[in-house]
Specification:
The structure holds two protein chains of two kinds. Chain A is mostly helical. Helices cover 66% and strands 2% of the residues of chain A. By secondary structure, chain B is an all-alpha fold. Classes of the chains: A mainly alpha, B mainly alpha. Chains A and B meet through α1, α2, α3, β1 and α5 of A and β1, α1, α2, α4 and α5 of B. β1 of chain A pairs antiparallel with β1 of chain B.
């Protein structure tokens, strides 16, 4: 992968950038959203966006950093579009089921419990892909059945939302047990 | 329901207000690795209670790894390749992607490195591991579902695996097993089948990795099948001495493969044997 900087004036064209970074940006999107089709769409959006702003790149940072920052904004915009309609709604956590399924120990005091719920949970949820996060949110916060989630999220994998939930539980448990560390 | 902790959907979904702890310039310096160590420590400490900053650090780490190593997970690479042509068409990138050898050749022509490149190629051909002589071919292994299926997803894994496995579609089988092994990292059987699938689809290095993990999980009761396949995988990556060691341990286990393992060790592993053995009568 790239080790030298592209000369911003002479060498940069979209083809070069795509050849060098498209697999990495695709992998980045895939881990962020959890769905290969959506990751491919986001990757396309990214390079369309880059092609439009190629002339404005000033060379203040490396191409890699620039692409990383634009890729993050592409994820944020996509997330914003998908959650806009329900973002202001409040939901309640089924804490009992959540603790039981994730095999989380009871915290000794109220303060620790509060930190877990209000801070670590939000941090650890962000470490999941959007798809895994949506399944956790639907299952433990909104009480939607896994069958319904499979249908609403249009999951085509054989194990549907149950497979996504199992993977998400494992990652969340590891993150929560590690006090928010990866 | 009323006493349950309540959250905003947008907040849980990762929308929320962006963190103003880091300016755009600082985020850029962080990504460039130009941030002072003290400041980096402050940001890391702050990230323990700030989801936005924690996500930025995670993303950065993830992207750095991907940009330096590329897509190393085979299923992700295949997903990228499947979408690549359509994206290229949409972006009107007519130039076909250049493979690494073509890129190297172009650079060699441009910078006058052709003689050095030719010498390097000859050296690589000379150093290339010889065809397998210890375990010449890896036989098809029958798929044996676990006697008790723990958890629904694993049962489904076996159902999905049966068709490609029995049809010899090892790349597809490896893909299914890859996901399952990630979900159940403590299952030696999944890792064993994953190793066999990778080995039979020509991915010897990653087969070694899976089989070594399976072997570690079976430390209390080593399996001759795991070690036999590990020996085959090690041989195909050029690690002959380690392959011979694995075969010696197969002989020691004393199961159905012991005779064959002993015969190979006697025939082909003599040079790799420890010096003490040579002095024995």
């Amino acid at each position: 992968m790239p080790s030298r900087r592209l000369d911003p004036v002479r060498e940069a064209d979209l083809g070069d950038l795509y050849d060098r970074y498209a697999p990495a940006t695709f992998g980045f999107f895939l881990r962020k959203v959890g769905d290969p089709a959506l990751a491919a769409d986001l990757n396309q959006d990214l390079y369309l966006k880059l092609s439009r702003s190629l002339d404005s790149f000033e060379g203040r940072c490396s191409w890699r950093t620039w692409i990383f920052l634009v890729a993050r904004s592409v994820v944020a915009e996509s997330r914003e579009r998908r959650w806009r309609d329900v973002a202001e709604r409040t939901v309640a956590l089924d804490e009992e089921a959540f603790r039981r399924d994730l095999r989380l120990p009871e915290d000794a005091d109220e303060r620790a419990r509060e930190i877990l719920l209000r801070i670590r949970l939000r941090i650890c949820l962000r470490r999941l892909s959007d798809l895994a996060r949506a399944v956790i949110l639907g299952h433990y916060f909104e009480g939607i059945t896994l069958q319904e989630l499979t249908s609403r999220l249009r999951l085509r994998n054989p194990s549907g939302s149950r497979g996504v939930l199992l993977g998400a539980q494992r990652k969340l448990r590891r993150c929560l047990e590690g006090a928010g560390k990866p | 329901m009323s006493d349950r902790p309540r959250f905003l959907v947008g907040d849980l979904a990762g929308l929320g207000a962006p963190c103003d702890h880091l300016s755009a310039e600082e985020a850029e310096a962080l990504a460039e690795g130009r941030l002072a160590a003290g400041r980096l420590g402050e940001i890391e400490a702050h990230a323990a209670s700030c989801p936005a900053c924690a996500e930025l650090l995670d993303d950065l780490e993830r992207f750095r790894t991907l940009a330096s190593r590329g897509l190393t997970v085979p299923s992700e690479r295949r997903a990228f390749d499947a979408a690549d042509a359509a994206v290229r068409r949409k972006l009107r990138l007519s130039r076909a992607p250049q493979s690494a050898p073509r890129r190297i050749l172009r650079a060699a022509v441009r910078y006058g490195w052709l003689p050095a490149l030719a010498a390097a190629v000859l050296l690589l051909v000379w150093l290339r591991p010889p065809p397998p002589v210890l375990i010449a071919s890896v036989e098809a292994v029958p798929l044996e579902p676990p006697p008790t299926v723990r958890g629904l997803s694993l049962g489904e894994t076996w159902d999905r695996l049966e068709r490609p496995w029995n049809a010899g579609a090892m790349a597809e089988a490896a893909r299914i097993l890859d996901t399952a092994a990630e979900e159940h990292p403590d299952r030696a059987d999944l890792l064993f089948y994953l190793g066999v699938a990778r080995l039979r689809s020509g991915e010897a290095a990653s087969a070694v990795e899976a089989l070594q993990k399976a072997d570690r999980l079976e430390a209390e009761a080593p399996s001759e099948n795991t070690r036999w396949m590990l020996a085959a995988a090690l041989e195909r990556t050029g690690r002959i001495e380690e392959a011979c060691d694995a075969l010696r341990s197969v002989a020691e286990i004393g199961g159905a493969r012991a005779g064959a393992a002993r015969e190979i060790v006697d025939r082909a592993c003599r040079e790799a044997a420890p010096p003490a053995d040579q002095s024995l009568p």
